[in-house]
Amino acid sequence: GGLTAAFDCAIVVLLFGLTLMSATWRENRGEGAPERAQEDGGAEASRSPLDLLSEALVSVWRSPALLALGAVVAGFEASMYAFVFNWTPSLTDG
Length: 94
What we know:
By secondary structure, the chain is mainly α. Helix content is 74%, strand content 0%.
């Protein structure tokens, strides 16, 4: 209760979401890409993490919508960190 009531309520929402996702979502294992794996002889699995990272960065840079989405998410996360860092002292003052 008190100042931490919002966090107590968040636990309920978190558990509900976890249950819903566990029951309805299937793992994405790249279904629909077997023809690509056959074309390159399974070379995707042998690529280095650095190659995969650079390919991802190029994809993000070339897509303005994806770049904007990343900026919005980063701004949201920054505001959440600011909220948490300002919220914590108010819990100890009260």
